[in-house]
Amino acid sequence: MNVFSVISGDSPVILGMPHGGTWLPEDLTARLNPTGQALADTDWHIARLYEGLLPGATVVASNVHRYAIDANRDPAGVSLYPGQNTTTLCPLTDFDGNPIWQPGQEPSQDEILARRDGFHAPYHAALRAEVERVKARHGVAILYDCHSIRSRIPFLFDGLLPVFNIGTDGGATCAAPVESATAAPCKAAQGYDTVLNGRFRGGWTTRHYGQPATGTHAIQMELSQRAYLAAEAAPWAYDAGRADRLRAVLGRILNDLDTLARSGALS
User: Fold this and answer.
1) CA torsion, points 131, 134, 138, 140, in degrees to nearest 10?
2) pLDDT band at residue 83 under the 50/70/90 scheme
3) Considering the entire predicted model, what is its pTM?
4) What is the Cα–Cα distance from 212 to 166, expressed in whole angstroms?
5) Cis omega (within 30 of 0) on the bond before 235?
6) Which of 115, 142, 169, 178 is most buried, by CB atoms within 10 Å?
Protein backbone atom coordinates (compact mmCIF):
# COMPACT_ATOMS: atom_id res chain seq x y z
CA MET A 1 0.00 0.00 0.00
CA ASN A 2 1.33 3.43 -0.95
CA VAL A 3 1.21 5.87 1.94
CA PHE A 4 -0.21 8.57 -0.32
CA SER A 5 -1.59 9.11 -3.82
CA VAL A 6 -0.88 12.07 -6.09
CA ILE A 7 -2.65 13.31 -9.21
CA SER A 8 -0.59 16.15 -10.66
CA GLY A 9 -2.60 18.71 -12.61
CA ASP A 10 -2.04 22.02 -14.35
CA SER A 11 -4.40 24.14 -12.21
CA PRO A 12 -3.07 26.51 -9.53
CA VAL A 13 -5.46 24.76 -7.09
CA ILE A 14 -4.32 21.77 -5.03
CA LEU A 15 -6.74 19.56 -3.12
CA GLY A 16 -5.34 18.04 0.08
CA MET A 17 -7.10 14.99 1.50
CA PRO A 18 -5.43 13.89 4.73
CA HIS A 19 -8.33 11.94 6.27
CA GLY A 20 -10.01 9.95 3.49
CA GLY A 21 -7.76 6.90 3.73
CA THR A 22 -8.95 3.70 5.42
CA TRP A 23 -5.82 1.55 5.19
CA LEU A 24 -4.10 0.34 8.35
CA PRO A 25 -1.34 -2.25 8.78
CA GLU A 26 -2.83 -5.55 9.93
CA ASP A 27 -0.93 -5.45 13.22
CA LEU A 28 -2.43 -2.07 14.08
CA THR A 29 -5.94 -3.17 13.17
CA ALA A 30 -5.55 -6.16 15.51
CA ARG A 31 -4.62 -3.82 18.38
CA LEU A 32 -7.69 -1.61 17.98
CA ASN A 33 -10.80 -2.36 20.01
CA PRO A 34 -14.19 -2.67 18.24
CA THR A 35 -14.73 1.09 18.51
CA GLY A 36 -11.43 1.74 16.76
CA GLN A 37 -11.94 -0.95 14.15
CA ALA A 38 -15.17 0.76 13.06
CA LEU A 39 -13.06 3.67 11.67
CA ALA A 40 -16.01 5.97 12.31
CA ASP A 41 -13.96 9.17 12.15
CA THR A 42 -13.08 8.80 8.47
CA ASP A 43 -13.78 11.63 6.02
CA TRP A 44 -16.07 9.25 4.18
CA HIS A 45 -16.14 9.39 0.35
CA ILE A 46 -14.24 12.69 0.29
CA ALA A 47 -12.40 11.83 -2.94
CA ARG A 48 -15.66 10.88 -4.68
CA LEU A 49 -17.31 14.07 -3.47
CA TYR A 50 -14.67 16.28 -5.10
CA GLU A 51 -13.88 14.11 -8.13
CA GLY A 52 -14.02 16.00 -11.43
CA LEU A 53 -15.16 19.31 -9.98
CA LEU A 54 -12.10 21.18 -11.25
CA PRO A 55 -10.38 19.65 -14.28
CA GLY A 56 -6.63 19.94 -13.85
CA ALA A 57 -6.69 20.20 -10.07
CA THR A 58 -3.82 18.49 -8.29
CA VAL A 59 -4.89 16.00 -5.63
CA VAL A 60 -2.69 14.75 -2.78
CA ALA A 61 -4.41 12.14 -0.61
CA SER A 62 -3.25 10.13 2.36
CA ASN A 63 -4.23 6.46 2.10
CA VAL A 64 -3.46 5.79 5.77
CA HIS A 65 -6.27 6.04 8.31
CA ARG A 66 -5.99 8.80 10.88
CA TYR A 67 -5.98 6.22 13.71
CA ALA A 68 -2.43 5.28 12.69
CA ILE A 69 -1.40 8.92 12.61
CA ASP A 70 -3.24 12.13 11.85
CA ALA A 71 -1.71 13.83 8.83
CA ASN A 72 -3.43 17.09 9.77
CA ARG A 73 -1.84 17.40 13.22
CA ASP A 74 1.37 19.15 14.18
CA PRO A 75 4.14 16.52 13.92
CA ALA A 76 5.54 17.89 17.19
CA GLY A 77 2.31 16.90 18.92
CA VAL A 78 1.30 20.46 19.81
CA SER A 79 -2.48 20.95 20.15
CA LEU A 80 -4.17 23.00 17.45
CA TYR A 81 -6.92 24.01 19.86
CA PRO A 82 -5.44 24.49 23.35
CA GLY A 83 -8.00 24.08 26.10
CA GLN A 84 -10.54 22.35 23.84
CA ASN A 85 -11.26 18.66 23.36
CA THR A 86 -9.52 17.30 20.29
CA THR A 87 -7.70 14.19 19.11
CA THR A 88 -3.93 13.87 19.10
CA LEU A 89 -1.21 13.14 16.53
CA CYS A 90 -1.69 9.42 17.17
CA PRO A 91 -5.25 9.33 18.50
CA LEU A 92 -6.07 7.45 21.69
CA THR A 93 -9.82 8.12 21.45
CA ASP A 94 -12.45 8.62 18.79
CA PHE A 95 -14.32 11.90 18.30
CA ASP A 96 -16.71 10.94 21.09
CA GLY A 97 -13.88 10.58 23.59
CA ASN A 98 -14.06 6.78 23.63
CA PRO A 99 -10.82 4.73 23.71
CA ILE A 100 -9.95 3.12 20.36
CA TRP A 101 -7.11 0.81 21.46
CA GLN A 102 -7.30 -2.42 23.42
CA PRO A 103 -5.94 -2.02 26.97
CA GLY A 104 -2.15 -1.86 26.90
CA GLN A 105 -2.03 -1.53 23.09
CA GLU A 106 -1.79 2.26 22.91
CA PRO A 107 1.18 3.51 20.84
CA SER A 108 4.41 4.21 22.71
CA GLN A 109 6.41 7.38 22.15
CA ASP A 110 8.91 5.48 19.98
CA GLU A 111 6.07 4.07 17.92
CA ILE A 112 4.57 7.51 17.46
CA LEU A 113 7.90 8.75 16.11
CA ALA A 114 8.13 5.77 13.77
CA ARG A 115 4.61 6.39 12.44
CA ARG A 116 5.43 10.06 12.00
CA ASP A 117 8.46 9.15 9.88
CA GLY A 118 6.70 6.38 7.96
CA PHE A 119 3.28 7.92 7.30
CA HIS A 120 3.05 11.62 8.20
CA ALA A 121 6.36 12.81 6.72
CA PRO A 122 5.98 11.12 3.29
CA TYR A 123 2.49 12.56 2.81
CA HIS A 124 3.69 16.06 3.58
CA ALA A 125 6.81 15.67 1.45
CA ALA A 126 4.53 14.87 -1.48
CA LEU A 127 2.21 17.75 -0.67
CA ARG A 128 5.11 20.18 -0.30
CA ALA A 129 6.55 19.07 -3.64
CA GLU A 130 3.23 19.68 -5.39
CA VAL A 131 2.85 23.11 -3.79
CA GLU A 132 6.30 24.10 -5.03
CA ARG A 133 5.67 22.65 -8.51
CA VAL A 134 2.37 24.50 -8.87
CA LYS A 135 3.80 27.74 -7.53
CA ALA A 136 6.75 27.53 -9.93
CA ARG A 137 4.30 27.22 -12.83
CA HIS A 138 1.71 29.83 -11.81
CA GLY A 139 3.53 32.09 -9.38
CA VAL A 140 0.91 31.22 -6.76
CA ALA A 141 -0.67 28.08 -5.33
CA ILE A 142 -3.97 27.65 -3.50
CA LEU A 143 -4.05 24.66 -1.19
CA TYR A 144 -7.66 23.74 -0.47
CA ASP A 145 -7.78 21.14 2.30
CA CYS A 146 -10.80 18.83 2.02
CA HIS A 147 -12.47 17.51 5.18
CA SER A 148 -15.79 16.21 6.45
CA ILE A 149 -17.17 15.28 9.84
CA ARG A 150 -20.36 14.20 11.58
CA SER A 151 -22.75 17.05 12.29
CA ARG A 152 -23.19 16.33 15.99
CA ILE A 153 -20.23 15.45 18.20
CA PRO A 154 -20.80 16.79 21.72
CA PHE A 155 -17.26 15.88 22.79
CA LEU A 156 -15.85 18.32 20.22
CA PHE A 157 -18.50 21.04 19.82
CA ASP A 158 -21.95 22.10 20.95
CA GLY A 159 -25.08 21.68 18.88
CA LEU A 160 -25.33 21.12 15.15
CA LEU A 161 -22.30 21.96 13.03
CA PRO A 162 -22.97 24.16 9.95
CA VAL A 163 -22.64 22.46 6.57
CA PHE A 164 -19.74 24.69 5.47
CA ASN A 165 -16.98 25.31 8.02
CA ILE A 166 -14.24 27.43 6.47
CA GLY A 167 -10.90 27.82 8.23
CA THR A 168 -8.18 30.38 7.51
CA ASP A 169 -6.85 30.83 11.06
CA GLY A 170 -8.50 34.22 11.26
CA GLY A 171 -7.39 35.25 7.77
CA ALA A 172 -3.70 34.47 8.34
CA THR A 173 -3.37 31.56 5.90
CA CYS A 174 -4.60 33.17 2.68
CA ALA A 175 -5.27 36.51 1.04
CA ALA A 176 -8.70 38.02 1.64
CA PRO A 177 -9.90 37.37 -1.95
CA VAL A 178 -9.23 33.63 -1.48
CA GLU A 179 -11.31 33.61 1.68
CA SER A 180 -14.08 35.58 -0.04
CA ALA A 181 -14.11 33.37 -3.14
CA THR A 182 -14.58 30.34 -0.92
CA ALA A 183 -17.18 31.80 1.40
CA ALA A 184 -19.39 33.59 -1.16
CA PRO A 185 -20.79 30.49 -2.93
CA CYS A 186 -21.44 28.87 0.46
CA LYS A 187 -23.38 31.85 1.78
CA ALA A 188 -25.35 32.12 -1.45
CA ALA A 189 -26.37 28.44 -1.49
CA GLN A 190 -29.97 27.87 -0.44
CA GLY A 191 -30.59 25.49 2.43
CA TYR A 192 -27.02 25.45 3.74
CA ASP A 193 -25.42 27.28 6.64
CA THR A 194 -21.85 28.57 6.79
CA VAL A 195 -19.34 29.68 9.40
CA LEU A 196 -15.91 31.23 8.91
CA ASN A 197 -13.23 30.44 11.50
CA GLY A 198 -15.68 28.91 13.93
CA ARG A 199 -14.92 25.64 15.73
CA PHE A 200 -12.59 24.67 12.86
CA ARG A 201 -10.06 27.39 12.07
CA GLY A 202 -7.84 25.23 9.89
CA GLY A 203 -5.66 22.33 10.88
CA TRP A 204 -1.90 21.99 10.82
CA THR A 205 -1.86 21.68 7.02
CA THR A 206 -3.62 24.99 6.52
CA ARG A 207 -1.61 26.81 9.15
CA HIS A 208 1.73 25.32 8.09
CA TYR A 209 1.49 25.87 4.32
CA GLY A 210 -0.60 29.03 4.31
CA GLN A 211 1.97 31.79 3.74
CA PRO A 212 0.25 34.28 1.45
CA ALA A 213 3.24 36.64 1.42
CA THR A 214 5.20 33.89 -0.38
CA GLY A 215 2.42 33.09 -2.85
CA THR A 216 1.06 30.01 -1.06
CA HIS A 217 -2.54 30.39 0.09
CA ALA A 218 -4.23 27.70 2.18
CA ILE A 219 -7.80 27.24 3.29
CA GLN A 220 -9.66 24.39 5.00
CA MET A 221 -13.18 23.28 4.19
CA GLU A 222 -14.82 21.09 6.83
CA LEU A 223 -18.16 19.77 5.58
CA SER A 224 -20.94 18.31 7.69
CA GLN A 225 -21.52 14.80 6.44
CA ARG A 226 -25.30 15.17 6.65
CA ALA A 227 -25.02 17.16 3.41
CA TYR A 228 -23.93 14.16 1.33
CA LEU A 229 -24.36 10.90 3.26
CA ALA A 230 -27.57 8.90 3.57
CA ALA A 231 -26.92 8.76 7.33
CA GLU A 232 -24.04 9.72 9.59
CA ALA A 233 -23.59 6.14 10.76
CA ALA A 234 -22.39 2.82 9.39
CA PRO A 235 -22.36 1.88 6.56
CA TRP A 236 -21.75 5.58 5.76
CA ALA A 237 -23.54 5.35 2.44
CA TYR A 238 -23.01 8.05 -0.16
CA ASP A 239 -26.28 9.77 -1.12
CA ALA A 240 -25.89 10.79 -4.77
CA GLY A 241 -28.84 13.20 -4.70
CA ARG A 242 -27.60 15.10 -1.68
CA ALA A 243 -24.04 14.93 -2.90
CA ASP A 244 -24.82 16.31 -6.36
CA ARG A 245 -26.46 19.36 -4.82
CA LEU A 246 -23.43 19.91 -2.59
CA ARG A 247 -21.02 19.27 -5.45
CA ALA A 248 -22.56 22.11 -7.42
CA VAL A 249 -21.50 24.54 -4.69
CA LEU A 250 -18.08 22.98 -4.24
CA GLY A 251 -17.49 23.08 -7.98
CA ARG A 252 -18.23 26.78 -8.10
CA ILE A 253 -15.79 27.39 -5.24
CA LEU A 254 -12.96 25.51 -6.90
CA ASN A 255 -13.50 27.08 -10.30
CA ASP A 256 -13.68 30.56 -8.76
CA LEU A 257 -10.41 29.90 -6.92
CA ASP A 258 -8.80 28.70 -10.14
CA THR A 259 -9.95 31.84 -11.97
CA LEU A 260 -8.73 34.05 -9.14
CA ALA A 261 -5.30 32.44 -9.07
CA ARG A 262 -4.88 32.72 -12.84
CA SER A 263 -6.02 36.34 -12.90
CA GLY A 264 -2.83 37.72 -11.39
CA ALA A 265 -4.74 39.37 -8.55
CA LEU A 266 -2.81 37.31 -5.97
CA SER A 267 0.64 38.11 -7.35
Assistant:
1) -10
2) confident
3) 0.97
4) 17
5) yes
6) 142
